[in-house]
TrEMBL record:
UniProt cofactor(s): Mn(2+); Mg(2+)
UniProt protein name: Isocitrate/isopropylmalate dehydrogenase family protein
Database matches in Gene3D superfamilies: Isopropylmalate Dehydrogenase
Residues in Isopropylmalate dehydrogenase-like domain copies: 7-353
Pfam families in UniProt: Iso_dh (PF00180)
Organism whose genome encodes this protein: Prauserella oleivorans
Amino acid sequence: MSKSSYDIALLPGDGIGPEVVDAAVTILDAAAAAYGFSLSYTSYDAGATLYQSTGVSISAATMEAIGSADAILLGAAGLPSVRKPDGTEIAPQIDIREHYGLFASLRPARLFPGVPTRVQAEHIDMLVIRETTEGLFAGRHDPLEPSDDAVSDRLTITRATSERLFTLAFEQATLRKATQGTPGRVTLLDKANVLRSNAFLRKIFDEIAAKYPDIASDHLYIDAGSMMLVTNPERFDVVVSENVFGDITSEIAAGVVGGLGVAPSGDVSLEHGVFQPCHGSAPDIAGQGNANPVATILSGAMLLDWIADRHDDTTCRTAAAAVRDAVASVLAQGPKTPDLGGTASTSEVTHAVAEALSTSRVRA
Ligand code: ATP
């Protein structure tokens, strides 16, 4: 049921994380004011800076508290200079994924007019869905058998997770077709010709596809599919894959539509959603005031869509579309940050998006 106010948990994190989260909050507030709902925010510490002072990257209390918010907005967590004793980086976003069973990562890749791309394509608008809890990550916590001769990683596909994943993919294709006029097609990328686990994955995909006669479906082997993402990205609508194939696929898709500065994402289960830019904390540009806020602002639009779905709230859905349109007009006309060839600051771009949002509302 729709509400007049929604609670958002903020995890600004490290590096440019707080800068881009501030920008997204400015736009979310502008959207809420224009469309007549309200958002309240609670900010929590998580990441490498917290780890340096406390020895934990996210406290147990924060982990619990964020679960009761309507949605979570994360900036970026981790710094290359801050490492755990085993040499790995701080990544509370992976802990949150595991804690709340966020089994799918949604990564839209849309080419906005005005954004430079190295591929030859006019119209790219796809949604890559990556499974995030099993596949080639399934054995991440398996005991390591000490050996200098051979080490294995386990690839596991379960029916339960695959059915949820593919149902989500077909539901997303249906929603995109209805609300954005996309063609309505789901493509599975796999290695079913070699890996038994992937032959099983494909079988489950076909079972779920049969329940959605209005949505087209097809499969490509991951190698050929990866090439086509670069040579013919226009052919894709919703793309779905197991964990590691999906990880790589989503970065290729982000690359063809202009890079990390414009790539949003959402890690979701049926109950919880964490929205964040695909980029990391970018310590090389932190504090300079010129990080591109677009990826986080678009993640904020995904957050509004998520709330709209869960609460059947058409106002939030309209506001999400308005945020995307405002971003599109700013990317087309400028101002733009240096990663897109411009000279503008984070706040100049943010204010331009807010201005475009309020102008479009007045016109509507
Ligand atoms: P992680 O492993 O945490 O995802 P990463 O190693 O992929 O991080 P990023 O922090 O994402 O690295 O940065 C990669 C490059 O992209 C850096 O040069 C960084 O400055 C640039 N970059 C990332 N995000 C942005 C942004 N929002 N605006 C401008 N440049 C960015």
